[in-house]
Please model this.
Amino acid sequence: MRPQHLALAALCLLAACSRPAGTPSAQGLPAAPSMAEADRRAPVDAAAVKMSYAPVVRKAAPAVVNVYSRRVVRQAVDPFWGMFGGGLGLSRDRIAQSLGSGVIVRSDGVIVTNNHVIEGGQEIMVVLGDRREFPAKVLMADPRADVAVLKIDAGAERLPVLALDDHEDAQIGDLVLAIGDPFGVGQTVTNGIVSALNRTGVGITDVGYFIQTDAAINPGNSGGALVNMNGDMIGMNTAILSQSGQSSGVGFAIPAALVKRVVETAIGGAKSAQLRPWLGLKTQPVTSDIAKTLGLDRPNGVLVTDVYPDGPGARAGVRQGDLILSVDGAPVQDEASLNYRVLTHKAGDEIALQIRREKGGMETVRLRASSPPAGPGRDERLITGRNPFSGATVVNLSPAVADELGLDPFAAGKGVLITKVEDGVAAGLGLQPGDLIKQVNGRPIETTAQLQAALAAGGPVWRITLVRNGQVLNAQVRL
Model:
């Protein structure tokens, strides 16, 4: 095929050269230039010279900032150095710094970034494009969504902003730009396409519903903007899939619709994600076997396995065995897509669920999402004394606490949760935050008051039952 292609090209060239340059054609017009002549001609205007992203960058880049946080951490010191004047202490303080990006979304200084950029930071600073630095306060942090909302005080100045495009009309193949501060070298723009939408199962956040892009994203880009060709932010750059820790063409961005909802919640006065909407439903994915049992031609939707008494779902008539197929008309393929669709609403919003009933009938159910119930109250207590839980901080497990910590709200009222473990007996026994205390010496534990009563009556031998990551653990301890 290659010799044939060359031959055809030569033939065209000879035919074009058979008429002297400038000889009028049969229509009395100048002859068309030869291919060789056309290749040598200079472009007649700027549009013929280049295709440029510069107009998009000029619109979007001024609103993208650098965010860094500092915290003091205690670091163990090798005892070897004590022999050489290093001191007798076994630890020393050092400054740890986290570097990332952020986006100004309101002209009065409201900024979004990733929670992991500022998490644990004792001092958070924002650097604008003109190199001015401002201290920032945290309006709200949502670790489960990995979104944080900051505020800086620039006085009466109106800062440049980047619009959050929450229309969710991006398509695979759309051109995008990633803007941020990779490796701390300064603001950098990279280009690519939308490689995939609604990406789940990558283990980055609990929400897990990402835009995937091949635009280069590197450490320091976290919290920066993924921008469409209108110069609007369609996502917040969050993570990469890479063995080296550097860009491999697989980057992930949190959709702007979720970022916008967190911003609105923060501006409304919430300090944490406790006001996230909740349906009061427990669900599971639809496997091939379940789909066959339900008479489906393929796995689709999520199956309701439990309904919280007097929760939003129960009040709307959702029943165990219902199959949820869509939320407000948007298809639901799995639990991640259901959670995402719900989280783009706020508590109090009406949500329409398209449901396939257990017997095959289709129905649209409208419910009003609410915040998870906060009772019983947290009643946080630090356990002291000579017992297995000494040094542990415990709380009552309400649906609100469970949802906030990413636990099963249906486990509420069925144990006492350990939220923190300090030096003490509990730490020595290997107890961990997230452990759910179920029994002490055979006595069921549902509240912190019951736990303390059981501890006051027990000893020196303790039989304890707890749940860790879904597994029941039993132990006997002598103190």
Summary: Residues 1-29, 80-89 have pLDDT under 50 and may be disordered.
